[in-house]
Structures are given as C-alpha cells and as structure tokens.
C-alpha cells in the first residue's frame, strides 16, 4: 500500500500547455505508477502477504462486530423510541384529562361569574350595601370649568333587584344578599346617627356656576400611560 | 444390516419430512386464509374493538350585548347512566386504607344525597329492569354534582355530557334573546327571539375524532385522526345594553304593579344609528325556566303585538301636514269639543271643553286635541295620508325580522270607512308595534332621516370577523325643517302639557307625546280598556335617544300619566348612562294659543 501511495505522490504535477494532454491521459489511467515504460521511478514491490486464514479471519470479526452493534443499536433505538412514544401517549392522555378537568373548572367559574354579574344580583347587592341611584348627574366641563346640570341629592329610591326573574340566582344568593343588607343597614344607621348632615354634605356644592374667575390653564388631571 | 438401517432411517426421515410438510401446508393454508381471505373481516373486527370515536362538540355560540356581557351561552351538563345488569356490591378503599363493601342500596343513597333525588328513586332506576344494559340514573346535573358522583368511585356508572343553553341574566332581555328547544337530533334549535332569528349564525357543527386505544384505554400513538373538524358557532352581538335593559324592565315592572296594568313595553333606541338599546317587555320570559311563563307571554310584545297607538301617532300626522306645506306650526285652529267632518264622521275631543279652543298647530299637539288634529289631518286626502304612513314604514315590519314580528295593521286607504278616515289622523283605526313607533320618533329626531332598526349588530365568527352586519343607509322621509318643527311642537307637550310634571327632566329639554288609546275588544268594537303611552326624544335641541313606553290596561290611572313616570325615569337613566350633557340652549318660542 505504501509504495502505491508513494507512486502517486511521486507523480509529476500536470503542467499547462503541451503537457496538458498527457496529464489528462495519465490521470485517466487506473494505476499510472505501474505502467511499463513510464518514465517515473517505480518503488520495489515487496510486502508481507497475509496467509489465507488471516485474510479470512480479520474481516470476519469486524463485520460481525459492525452487524451486531448495528442490530443492537437499532433494537435499542427502537425500544427507546417506542418507550418514548408510549410515554408521550400516556402524557398526552393525562394532559388531555387535565385539560378536561380544567375546562370543567373554567366552565363552573365562568358560569358563576356570569350569574353573579347579572344586573339582578348587582342591583340587589348594591341595595344591600345601602346604595341609591342619583338620577340628576352634574357635569364639570374641563375646558372652562362650567358646572352643567342642576345637582340634587339622591332620593332614597334604590332599584329593587329580585323582581326580574332569574332562576339561576339561587335562594342562597338572595339570603346572602339579605344578610349583607341587614348588616349594612345597621352600619348605615350608626353612621347616619353620628353624622346627621351626611346626606346634605354628600351632594356637590351648586355654587361655582357663576364662574367670575374662569379657570386659567390646564386642570390638574392624573397622568395615565 | 447397514442397508436395513439405512432403509428404515430413510423411511422414518421421509415420514418426518412428509409430516413436517403436511403441517407446513396446514399452516400456509391457515395463513393465507387469515392474512388474505379473511383479512378484511378480521381487521374490521379488531378495529371495532380497538377504535374509539370521540365526538368533539362544536358548541352553539353565545349571544352577547353591545359591550360583550353574555346573555346566552352553552355549557355542558352531565347524564349519569348505569348498566343494571352489572349493578352489584363493590369494594371501596377508604382514606384509612380499610376496604369496605358498598351495596347498591348504599350507593343509591349516596347518589341521591348529591342529586337531591330520593334514594328510592335512584334505587328504582337501577333495578327497574335488571336484565337491561342501560338506565338513566340522573340527567342534566352540573359539574359539581358530576364530580361528586364520579368521586364515589362506583364502577357500574357511566357518564355522558350534553351541551345545554344557559342565560346568566335570566329574564333581563329574555323576551328578546329567546330560548332553544331541548337538545335533540338537531342540537339546540332556537325556538324564539334572537335564538331563532340568528340560529344560522349561532349553530355549531360537531366534529368527530377517531383513535385506537390500548387495553388501558390510552390512545395508541399515531392513530388519532380527526374525521370531521368541529366548528363552534358564531357569536350574535346585539345592540342591546343589558344594564339599561334591566333598568327599563325594572322600572316598567314597578309601574305596572303600581297601576295594576296587564302588560307593557319599553323601547329605547339610538337616534343617530337606529340601534335598539333596550326592548323591555312585561311579562317577560326567563329563558332558563320557560315553563314558568304562560305560552302567550313567551315572545316580545314590542315586536309582535300591534296596538292602536293613539295620540303618539299624531306626530306622524303633523309631519305629513307640514311636509305637504298645508300648515305651519303656527296655523290657527278653532277646535270644537265635537267635530264632524265633511263625510259625516265625527269625533269627540280628548277632554271636555264647552267652548272651542283657539289653538295653534303646536297647541293642538300640546293639548293633544283630537278634533284639532282631525281638522288639520283632513287637509290631506286619505290617499296622501296613507302614503305618508307607508313612507314612515308603519305598514311593514322593521328590518330586524324578529320571529313573528308584526308590521302593524292598516287597511289600504280605498277600503277606509268614513270613521277610519277620520280616526287614523290621531292613531285609532291603525295598529302599530312599539318598535315601529320608536322608529317613527327616531326618524323625526334624526332630521327626517330614517335608519334601519337594528337589534343584532352582526355575527362574530370564531376568527373575529363580523358578518351579517347591517349597512345603516338612511332614508330621508321628510325634510330636516319639517322634522325639527315636529320635535319643537312635541317639546311644548313637556313644557306645558297635562303630564308636564311627570315628563320633565331637570336640566334637559325633552320632546315627547303622550297617548291614551282605547283598545279594541277583539270583535271590532272598542273595549273600556286603554293603552297608555309616551314616546319622546331627548335632548330636544339635538335628539340622541328615543324612549317609547306603552302600558296596557292600567286600572288605577287611565291616562298617559300611567306611562309618563316610566318615560321620565328611563330617559334620565339613558342620558346619565351615556353622559349626555344637559341642554344649554333655551327652547324656541312656540305660541300654543291665540
């Protein structure tokens, strides 16, 4: 093997011009170093010839090793792959189950949310907290500070809530609202006793409509980004 | 010897070979039979055992109001079924690790405690037909009950889920939203209201998924196939504002209870868009519990029940006469108590007065004088008046296309008798729906431009696109000047009419018309019952909202005073909720008498 390599290495480089044809020919030769009449020096061809048994034995082990390793590798890969796959299948199945459960929880919560935010429930809860609606709003115009509308204190008319039927609102909700109402009423009564003028004070002052001194510059307002 | 041995050996060998060959042939035949001849049958049988079909619900879409509040949605409810054949004792391992035996009777009692049935009923269902393989234990339970029953760990129970409709706001907008039938072959089919109107938008398509499963029920990797893609239904977006809707219903209900009326409607619409913000009916169905409402009251009277509007219709007569150029707001009329026209038809005025009243056209509206309106109205021919009524869309159903919507009742002008000819000027002998009256006032408030009545904004598909939207193309019915004149005349009703104190809203200019119409008794004559109504606009200088209230058959009050406080409260609420600034321009000078 060494001498063959040597022969190749010793080959002259193909030169341009007149030698190009020759080099093309020589490069097409299967074993140019062995050609008789070639003008290159040929190395002596001496080497140890392996015995027949040696020749046969050596590749046998290599082949066997390769094949066995290959088969093992394939088996192991396939095993791992199918373990992975079925692992995945179980994981998918458990995640799907989990998703189903979460969907159910989501459904329960959104149902509850929608029902609790129904106007009937909100009105009842607001009334239970002692809130009343004021139908005479007053507007403050920012551009010139003018007060629009005629302010008046809210009357005691709360909007009732339970008369528009909603069979989703269970009696338990109503009971809770009623309990909250009585507790709030007690608090409200106490507050009212302590502050007899609270209702009057809660109404916005109606005076600054005359606006002798109009507002100069921008009104302070919160900066929101 | 050697020859003999070898012969017997050969014979035995031959026998063995023949035997092996025979066995191999048998195997080959069997193999061919299984792998080729019977292959399809066996494959199918195996697939049958392995494969599972999993329906994927394409749930019916939601109905939401104009800010996304859910008015109708689909949720899953559960049926619990059992196989009575396999109902036996089973063992349950408690938390302390001890195993206890549970009998079917005990299991039935446990289920009953969760579902609220009697233990006997549950046990009865389980044992009614012991040879059967299927029995309902309970149906339509919610997630909490389902989980509780599942956690009992009863091996012979099975569970199914079903989509059902739920309406979180109950009767708020119930008559408009409508309801669906029970889940059946066609899924949930809309039977009333928007559920029916927009069924096509809402309906979803169920999908189907198939997979093969192993012994433990887990899908075999790579076998899941979606046979049919599930497609959830679209969302019907309404123009209704659910808070306002609630307020309108509550206010109407309070007043109806107070005056002992039979039924009533409130319609709130937006002048600049023609959108309905609230359509309140009393009585109104709670779609969660349809059976609790009488069948006749399950619809929306505002769309479906035409009634003789009475004086609120005078606005149309006024607009017609002004548009024809036959009168101005200051045209003077001497209105007698009893007026008999050229055809011999006669009518009495709304309230008794011995001397004729010297009224301007505006005064006729303010006093709601029937004789004055008839005299002015008859300046037009019947044909012309019919033409105007038709032009204002009083003879056709609105663009909403509500199920069973009425388009009012009015005979063609050439079939009018003399009395009808006279009374149609002030809203008797003609029937309209509350929605049509609201649309009439919308036209007058919007400078004479009528916009299509809208209840459904559109259908929002799963990908967020809106379809089926209405193109709001206006139609100029009368010129701006005529519409403005009518609104100004209507304002005198609030500033000086008999219901002044019930109609005024502090800080705002309001234009409204009261009406008290005798109701038909159903056989061609008038009954002693009235339908009282108020329709109006605010703020009068630049109308933004229409509120139209009708209350039928009030007992304690039989004038429009029954409806006026409802109008006043709801209009105040609309103006407050939408931050309409109080009026700053004073009302125009509009003499009503001379």
Automatic annotation (TrEMBL), chain A:
Residues 188-214 have a biased composition (Low complexity). The chain crosses the membrane at residues 61-85. Residues 188-225 are annotated as: Disordered. Keywords: Membrane, Transmembrane, Transmembrane helix. This is Cell division protein FtsL. It comes from Herbiconiux oxytropis.
Automatic annotation (TrEMBL), chain B:
GO terms for molecular function: penicillin binding. GO terms for cellular component: plasma membrane. Belongs to the transpeptidase family. It comes from the Bacteria. It comes from Herbiconiux oxytropis. Residues 56-220 form the Penicillin-binding protein dimerisation domain. Pfam families: PBP_dimer, Transpeptidase. GO terms for biological process: cell wall organization. Its main location: membrane. Residues 264-571 form the Penicillin-binding protein transpeptidase domain. It is found in: Membrane. This is Penicillin-binding protein 2.
